[in-house]
Design goal:
By secondary structure, the protein is of the alpha/beta class. It contains 11 helices and 24 strands.
Length: 452
C-alpha cells in the first residue's frame, strides 16, 4: 500500500490550485495528485485551440507548476474511496492511504437523452481531455458547414473561433438571445450583433428537435421545422458535475448531484474536501443553489481548501458564488458579475440601476480608444452593489473583476463614489469620468431623486 499525507483526485484548475495552496501552507506535508490525463488543458483556453492557437499543444499547463514545488503527480484513475479506512484504489491496482483527501473531479459535457442523433458521426462535445479535443480538431478541420447548439460562453467562443477559420457557422440557441442567462437583454443583444457582424449565423429563440443523418450528421432539424445543412455539430448545451465516483463512495450530493460541502469546502468527513465544478455552490447574494461552473470560482474554492486542510482559519471560508464572467467577440469584450437586473427583480429585490457610457483611454483621440459601458445593479434601501455588467475593450476583464470585489466586500454606492483609483491615458478611462464611479453617480442621483 502506498501512503501520502494529502491525496488530490483531479488535475485541472481546482486540483492544481489546491495542491499549490496546500503545499505553501503545510510545506512539511507530502502531496500527491492523481489524474487520468497525460497532459492538462488550460480550461478557459479550450475554444481558442480551434482558431487563435491552432493547436492544443499551445494550451497545456506544464507539470513543472506542481513538481517544482515538490508535489508528486501520477497518471492513473481512482475507482473507489473508502472514507472510514482513508484508502483509495486505482485502476492500475494501487491502494493509497491518505490523511486528507481532495476531490476535484470537475464536470462533463451534457448530452441530452431526449435529443435524437447525438450518437451520429461528427457530433462532438467539448471536454477538457486533450486526446478527445485533438480528434475533434482533426475532424472539424475538413468540415465547411458547422452547427453549434447552445449559446453560452463555450458555444459563443467556439462559434467565433471556427468562424475565423472560414467555416460557415450557425449558432442555435433556444433563448431569445445568445448569452441570455448571463446578461440583461440590452447587453445580450449587443453581443449577438457583434457575433453576427463577424459572420456567424444565429438562430435564437429556436430549439433543436433532432440531429439528422445516416451514420454521419447531415442536418439539424429545429422545432419550427427549419432544417440546417451541416457536416458537423458541436453540442455546447452545458456541463454536469462529475460525481459518479463520489456517489458510489457514499458522499452526500445535492438535488443537482453536486457534492455537499461546508464553508471550508469540507464534506461531512472533515478530512475530505471537495473543490471545483463537482462541489455544491450557493449564490453569494440569494444563497440559493448555483449551477455556475467557472475556473475562477474553482480556484477560489481551492485556495480555501488548501488553507484549511490541517488548521481551520475562521476568516477563510467560501461565502458563495458571485459568478464573474467575461468574454470577447472581436475587439469588443463583455463582462458580468453578481445579479443582473432581471435576476434581481425575479428574486424580488428592490433595485436601482445606473449606466454610464464612456471611453477606455484619455483623451479619446488616442489610437485604439474603445467605447465603454458600465451598468450597476444596486439595492435601493442599503445602496449595496448586487451586480454589474460591462461592455468595452480588453480592460473589461479587469473592470468586471473590480465590480466582483465590490460585491464580495458588500460595498455601497457611497464607498464607490469615494474610491481612490489610479489612471493613465493609455491604460484607463479619465479620472474625471471613470466608468464605475460615474455609474455609481447615476445610481446615487436616482436614489436621491426618489427620496424627494
Amino acid at each position: 500500500m502506498k501512503r501520502t499525507d494529502v491525496l488530490i483526485i483531479g488535475g485541472s484548475a481546482a486540483g492544481i490550485v489546491t495542491a499549490l495552496t496546500g503545499k505553501f501552507n503545510y510545506p512539511e506535508k507530502e502531496f500527491l495528485l492523481i489524474r487520468k490525463e497525460e497532459k492538462v488543458m488550460v480550461p478557459c483556453g479550450i475554444p481558442y485551440i480551434f482558431g487563435s492557437l491552432g493547436s492544443s499543444d499551445k494550451n497545456v499547463i506544464p507539470d513543472t507548476v506542481l513538481t517544482s514545488k515538490g508535489i508528486k503527480i501520477e497518471i492513473d484513475e481512482i475507482v473507489s474511496i473508502d472514507q472510514s479506512k482513508k484508502v483509495c484504489n486505482t485502476a492500475k491496482g494501487t491502494e493509497i492511504n491518505f490523511e486528507k483527501l481532495i476531490l476535484a473531479t470537475g464536470s462533463i459535457p451534457i448530452i441530452p437523452n431526449w435529443l435524437k442523433g447525438t450518437n451520429l458521426e461528427n457530433v462532438f462535445t467539448i471536454s477538457k481531455d486533450k486526446i478527445h479535443l485533438d480528434k475533434v480538431f482533426q475532424k472539424i478541420r475538413d468540415c465547411k458547414k458547422i452547427v453549434v447548439i447552445g449559446a453560452g460562453f463555450i458555444g459563443v467562443e467556439m462559434s467565433d473561433e471556427l468562424n475565423k477559420l472560414g467555416k460557415e457557422v450557425t449558432l442555435v440557441e433556444i433563448l431569445p438571445h445568445i448569452l441570455g442567462l448571463i446578461f440583461d437583454e440590452e447587453i445580450a443583444v449587443q453581443a449577438e450583433e457583434a457575433l453576427k457582424t463577424r459572420g456567424v449565423k444565429i438562430k435564437s429563440g429556436k430549439g433543436v428537435k433532432e440531429i439528422i443523418g445516416n451514420k454521419k450528421v447531415t442536418e439539424v432539424l429545429l422545432e419550427n421545422g427549419e432544417k440546417i445543412e451541416t457536416e458537423a455539430v458541436i453540442l455546447a448545451m452545458g456541463y454536469r458535475p462529475n460525481t459518479g465516483l463520489a456517489q458510489k463512495s457514499g458522499f452526500k450530493v445535492s438535488e443537482g448531484k453536486y457534492i455537499k460541502v461546508d464553508g471550508y469546502m469540507r464534506t461531512e468527513n472533515s478530512d475530505i474536501f471537495v473543490v471545483g465544478d463537482c462541489a455544491e455552490k450557493k449564490d453569494f447574494i440569494t444563497r440559493k443553489p448555483s449551477a455556475v461552473m467557472l475556473a475562477s470560482t474553482a480556484c477560489a474554492e481551492a485556495r480555501i481548501a488548501g488553507m484549511n486542510l490541517y488548521k481551520l482559519r475562521s476568516v477563510k471560508i467560501f461565502e458563495g458564488t458571485i459568478a464573474i464572467f467575461s468574454t470577447a467577440i472581436g475587439e469588443t469584450a463583455f463582462g458580468a458579475a453578481g445579479l443582473t437586473e432581471s435576476m434581481a427583480k425575479k428574486e424580488g429585490c428592490d433595485v436601482v440601476t445606473g449606466t454610464f457610457d464612456g471611453i477606455d483611454k484619455h483623451p479619446g483621440t488616442l489610437a485604439h480608444t474603445h467605447k465603454q459601458m458600465v451598468k450597476l445593479i444596486v439595492a435601493r434601501d442599503s445602496g449595496i452593489i448586487l451586480g454589474g455588467e460591462v461592455i468595452g475593450s480588453k480592460s473589461t476583464g479587469e473592470l468586471i473583476n473590480i465590480i466582483g470585489l465590490a460585491i464580495q466586500n458588500k460595498m455601497t454606492v457611497s464607498s464607490i463614489l469615494t474610491a481612490q483609483i489610479g489612471t493613465h491615458p493609455l491604460l484607463t478611462a479619465p479620472p474625471t469620468a471613470y466608468p464605475i464611479i460615474k455609474c455609481a453617480e447615476d445610481v446615487a442621483k436616482k436614489i436621491k431623486s426618489a427620496q424627494k
